[in-house]
Amino acid sequence: MPSRPDKRRPHQKPKQDAKSLKRKREQVSLDQLQDAVDQFDPKTADTTKFSNLPLSSPTASGIEASHFQAPTDIQARAIPEALKGRDILGAAKTGSGKTLAFLVPVLEKLYRARWTEYDGLGALIISPTRELAVQTFQVLTKIGRFHSFSAGLVIGGKSLKEEAERLGRMSILVCTPGRMLQHLDSTSGLQVDNLQILVLDEADRIMDMGFKSAVDALVEHLPKERQTLLFSATQSRKVSDLSRLSLKDPEYIAVHESAAASTPESLQQHYLVTPLASKLNTLYGFIKANLKSKILVFFSSGKQVRFAFETMRHLRPGVPLYHLLGAQKQAQRMQITSSYAASKQACLFATDVVARGVDFPSVDWVVQVDAPEDVDTYIHRVGRTARFNKDGKAVLFLDPSEEEGMLKRLESKKIPIKRVNVRENKKQAIDESIQSMVFRDPALKYLASKAFISYVRSIHLQRDKEIFNLKSLDLEAYAACLGLPGAPIIHFDKGEDVKKLKNMSRAALSDSDSDFDSEKKKRKVRTKTDKMFERTNQDVLTDHYTKLIDGTTDRAAEDSEDDFLAVKRVIEGDDFDTVADAKTTLPSGTKIIQGLGGEEPFIVDSKRREKMLKSKKQMLKFKGKGDHIVFDDEGTAHHPYRIQGEEDFKRDGSAEAQRQKFVEGETAKVKEADISDKALAKEKRREKKERRKIREAMEDGLAPAASTMPRLETPDDGEDPLAFLASLPVNNGVHNDGGDSSGEEEVEQRPRKKAKKWFEDDSDDEKNRKKGKKSKSKVIEITEEPDTLEDYEALAAGLLDD
What we know:
This protein is α/β, with parallel strands linked by helices. Helices cover about 45% and strands about 10% of the residues. Among the domains are: about 20-255, P-loop containing nucleotide triphosphate hydrolases (Rossmann fold); about 265-445, P-loop containing nucleotide triphosphate hydrolases (Rossmann fold, 3-Layer(aba) Sandwich); about 570-660, no CATH class; about 700-710 and about 775-800, no CATH class. It is built from 31 helices and 18 strands. It holds the Pfam family DEAD.
């Protein structure tokens, strides 16, 4: 058979050759890209456009599609150095585009390495907060849309198992330190041995005391041969920090050192001096005067944020209100962040959780009600406005004791700030409204006390005592502005660091708030009763009830005539000697209460005894009136829970003999009950059988005839039985004499049972006759009134006959 001619054209090549040519072209383009990067000199080259930078086509297309045209200063200087594989220490103003400065090198690094999902994790980007990590991930998805890399977001708030299932296929991860450390310790499918690049956004916050242990443990899992990029608005050059991260000859890039300040020039910065007790009034007046603006308000603690949000929400200033703090759940934080970002006029109360890197569009005002802990925190806070060369305004509330020290710190960083005053017609007073709300709502009062305690503790923990001096603050006036009747008592812990405390997890904070023994340094165990008695300031009368239980009152309250709720116990006569003798033998702090009804005075020497005072059952038992008696089947009264004494038990015999006796007695009772039950059941069966026989006889027409039925005899007393029968009603209360029974002689009749069928007509009788059945309805017409006894007997026989 002749072979078929080859129809393939001479210039066609096999598919294998096409693939190899494609790989060669890609390799040539990668080599050309690497040569362009090596030859690129940022000092002489034009860096005013992204198109002039040596970038790959997917990255360039993503940047163009995201509408980024001209790189900022930090981007123009950091991207070329990072593309050459150098470690970077980048410092730039807030809102200067640091996110894009490290995302572009990440994409280019993996693109030139031809990274795939089978090579493991290639890039790791760490952010200090969840909001900043989400924002970074969103920018990454925009500029990397034309790449084939897989990227993931690991920030917590979701199931660790669900995240672990996807991490094995990720090339780029954006994460927070704690959550990433969890996966490195527990997720087996996560490979980091080939990590190419590590990025720390807001590096100064990540590397402070709060994240030190997490960062150290995380770096131990990573390979030392890698590229590391550190970016922040306030960068550090500490040798210890650089050695911890294994940086090799890092390139320090700071674009704001030659400028007049580390804040944008388009930012207008102001401060006003207001006492601590007037800050909420000033804040409310500020919000009312800027209802058409987008405002971001910073507090030092989450409790203050919650209290300010709740009070302002009830006052309804006329603008949408939001609040954001670290204690909220992740879904709630994401919803609040997106809602506030999409709003044009709104006010957000927040902690420093959104002070770094988070980009809220078009923020008009940044208000700092509480002074920042340092200048770096101030720079990050005000950086939420005036971003990307836009205009913005910021105002700082300072107590008179904080003014001098804070201004010195800001001037040392070349931050221009001017003092302003509040107009008299713009001032608002909400103290009375807050006091009224706190008085009516116990939960709000509890929150006010927590806000007071958290603020005072934050001031106590500040390192810079020249600015934050607790003794110079009027705490009583501050408690009054929160609606509290007085300043709560606070127990301070010495030696704590404010940054460590702010960055500590909630579990660690709960442990740190526990009581410790000063001598043994061991944690005490707090019972549920202890926690109950520690709950103060939750109700208006809580303090009063505590005084009643403790039996003690304040000396000033005892002397005051207005305190009509105070209860005092008077000890007279021999009771005084008894109490005095008892006090000499009992430990200190023990209370003795007379007159409760018991034989002995009631002694309160523990928390459990204090709790007994509130129990009616325990107090009745103490008075001897709580003995409960029940009666058995024989009517004998006995105590339900009283146990027989050991001597009485032995007197009745051994345990086995008593058990055998009990079993025999119960067996005899059961047999007697069984005999009576059988006899009763037999009698019921006999009666039922007789009734059935009579019913069957009546249905078959075998009823006895009228002549054989018993006759009524005339009694000896001469009473006529016919007269008795004539007096009985015949039909529905109508007597046989034709009179109506509705008068005084009306006889009450039993209600008839409801018929199963609502009505019955002639057609039913006809159907029954056709089927051979007997008609259920029967009407007997009486033509003559019965006069004699025989007539009545005949009438009865007719009724029984079919």
